[in-house]
Amino acid sequence: MVASDDTKPTVEGDAASSKKAAKKAAKAAEKQQKKAEHKASSVQNEVQDEKDISEGKYGIMKLIQSTGENRDRVYTDVKDLGVALEGKMVWVRVRLQTSRAKGKQCFCVLRQNCHTVQLLMSVNEERAISKNMVKFTGNITKESIIDVQAIVARTAAPIDSCSVRDVELLGVQVWVVSQARPQLPLQIEDAARPENNDPEGLKIRVNQDTRLDNRVLDLRTPANQAIFRIEAGVCRLFRDILTKKGFVEIHTPKIISAASEGGANVFTVSYFKSNAYLAQSPQLYKQMAIAADFDKVFTVGAVFRAEDSNTHRHLTEFVGLDLEMSFIHHYHEVVDTIGQTFTDMFRGLQEQYASEIATVGEQFKVEPFKFLDPPLRLEFPQAVEMLKEAGVTIGDEEDLSTPVEKLLGRLVKSQYDTDFYILDKYPLAVRPFYTMPDPNNPRYSNSYDMFMRGEEILSGAQRIHDPELLTERAKEHGIDISKIAAYIESFRLGCPPHAGGGIGLERVVMLYLGLDNIRKTSMFPRDPKRVTP
Amino acid sequence: MYHMKNIVSFQEEIELPKCMYRLKNPIEVDENDEAELNIRDQVTKFLKKMSNNGLVELENRQERLLTKLDDLYERIKTISSLCKNSQQDIKTSKPKMEFVKPSEVVMFLHPDKLPWFMNIFLKAINGINVSWHTHSSVPSIKIAKVDSFFKKFQALYSSQSGGKVNFRLIFKCESAAPELKISSLSSPIIGSVNILRYLCLVFPNIVNYDYDDHQIDGMLDICHQLEMDSVKNKEVSITQMFTDKTGFIYKNMFSVVDLALFNVIKQMQNGTKLVPKKWYNDCEKIIL
User: Fold this and answer.
1) Are A257 and A487 in contact (CB under 8 A)?
2) Which N-terminal stretch is annotated as signal sequence (chain A) (predicted)?
3) Quick check: A122 and A137 in contact, CB under 8 A?
């Protein structure tokens, strides 16, 4: 409030106006007096400020440049806070998610990864907390990183808004480690709001593009924290399970001289004086490793597809989890190994990532993933029969379209109550030239697809390891033999019978969690319209 | 609410009575007065005078409708007589009927309830590929019990060369009663007693089950009830079933009732104590 010191001069001979002027003058004098009083009191406050009882207990921390201060300080993780620590003094390094200051109190929600806890900062002489300290806490910008020293206290009623419900923190010290700017491009509460159809809930949502443009903020939501921890889990379990089964992890080149699968969907890169391509699949290298007597190999790495597919399940760059294995007599040895790897992986996720799965479920309501152990394996003609019963007629040598695959997924779920199944014996006509034909029925092949929630996640087959048969099949497909001469040649040195397949990490995580878009499971997704951030 | 179609049009007025009840004048008798007020006669006279095509059409239509109704009545009579005949036919031919054997059969079971009743069928039928799966709802600790059952009866629960029927057992914690599914679109058969009824129908001559005998069905219903009952009620009911009996329950001959009850006993912890030892041993020899 700014009080004006100017007073209008009175006009002589006008009694009424002179009375008004006198009143105005009196008011002005009163204001002046009040102003002086206020000034005096503020000076007094300043004096009091100088004697702030909380001094040295709050403020902006000196830039951490690894000078060695406070190295003996022990920090507690938010997830470990509980009644067992009641009454104990703890230090936590957290983000300030929200704060609400009212009078002598300030309630804050502190977040560390997926976990949140309530902080209560109230004026308290015993703990030497001044009003200024409370005010300071209330003014810390959202998403700033802070160090808090506090006493763990049991709450009278569970705090529903936080993941730590039984206890809260009673603040003693607050230091700002890294300040966030006051205006955020999106609010974490909005980005973390459950996507259910609650008629009474707030409808404010953050759209996909805003999220991806501000991915650093978006990734801070509990659901995203959980998604990428689960994704790491899938990768780790894939490695662990296969290593236990005797597989060897190999690393295949990503810059290749020729397109590995057809050549239509490759990214060309300038390579010194000529061009090279980004690998579409590590398949040829896996097969070469088999031919080099590695028997069982797997690889985890980036795969590039120059497909202009703007769908919910396509990316131009994704993480491929590929495996190849030699077998003794029947390619079902490989199918069973891959199927069991998936089942073990799902079981591992169910047991080791239950809390993360529940966290994702709080934002995205989906049915839990169901599977069978050992996994269900159906043959292509059986699927055709099931579809026929449901009124969809498919030709014996016809591939399944995406909507038909989804319908089949529903039918399988209805009969077997599983979201994961293997479809074996695909028609030879719909598979690549290197697929081994079925010896019992030349119209079919020794190939298989694996499905999660009705969407294909893996396509694999027994590869032809005989150079003559491979040449014959390539000719039947109308492929120029000279272009694949090196591939055919690699089998002339003797190669064991083998089969394999590959999956996209992001797609597996998306379907396991029942999410609707692959961009939700890619940390920095690449699609035909996005190459940033 | 309703508009009446004008079928007979005329302008002449009909003289209507002016009072509700006419009393005869005991003193003066006027016969003409009554005759003049007879409304039916008046209307008939009008109608006779008029040559109305609409009325003729209406009469014809009515005639046609009546003929159709007669025809329908005859047809219904024939159909009902046919139904009576076919019902009699079914009664006589029911046990001889052959049901189409499904190519894919799925049975959902709780891991605590093992499929003891299946052994007798698997022993007798050839060409069945049996496989078993555990559902994701089953915790790891419960898998061992199921695993040991299949190890014990490995020869029965395996794939047979050239098998045309796939029989899959899925152990799932979500439903207590066993469920049998023969198609993704059909409703499941719920309860092991009902599954037994179905299996006896599809694979006749393995277990004795007379479809015309209501007493057998009554006993099967009791067995079905036993599956859902508390342990205490089970004990009472099973003891009652074996009053004055040491051999097979119905007509002293092994039947579907013995099989259903044996399955219930096998699912109980102390079930064998409730039944005569001879009956249990005889059943075990036949079923397992």
Assistant:
1) no
2) none
3) no
**Alpha carbon A517 to its chain's center:** 11
Nearest to A374 among B133, B172, B185 (CB): B133
> Taking Cα atoms as reference points, which of B232, B217, B244, B216 lies closest to residue B270?
B232
Which 131-160 residues of chain B touch chain A by CB within 8 A?
133-137, 140
Per-residue model confidence as pLDDT tens for chain A (533 residues): 434 444 344 444 455 556 777 788 778 878 877 776 665 555 455 545 557 888 899 999 999 999 988 899 999 999 999 999 999 999 999 999 999 998 899 999 999 988 999 999 999 888 889 999 999 999 999 999 999 999 999 999 999 989 999 999 999 999 999 999 999 999 998 999 888 777 777 778 899 999 999 999 999 999 999 999 999 999 999 999 999 999 999 999 999 887 555 556 889 999 999 999 999 999 989 999 999 999 999 999 999 999 998 999 999 999 999 999 999 999 999 999 999 999 999 999 999 999 999 999 999 988 899 999 999 999 999 999 999 999 999 887 889 999 999 999 999 999 999 999 999 999 999 999 999 999 999 999 999 999 999 999 999 999 999 999 999 999 998 888 888 888 888 899 999 999 999 999 999 999 999 999 999 999 999 999 999 89
Put simply, whether A421 touches B (Cβ < 8 Å) is no
Told to judge if A154 belongs to the known catalytic residues of this protein, a careful annotator would answer: no
Point out the residue among A346, A390, A412 whose CB comes nearest to the CB of B136: A346
Decide: A253 and A285 in contact? Cβ < 8 Å.
yes
Contact across the interface for B185 and A373, Cβ inside 8 Å: no
Could you report the predicted ipTM of this complex, rounded to two decimals? 0.79
The CA distances from residue B246 to B216, B239, B268, in Å, are: 18, 11, 20
Q: How many CA atoms lie within 13 A of B145 on its CB side?
A: 13
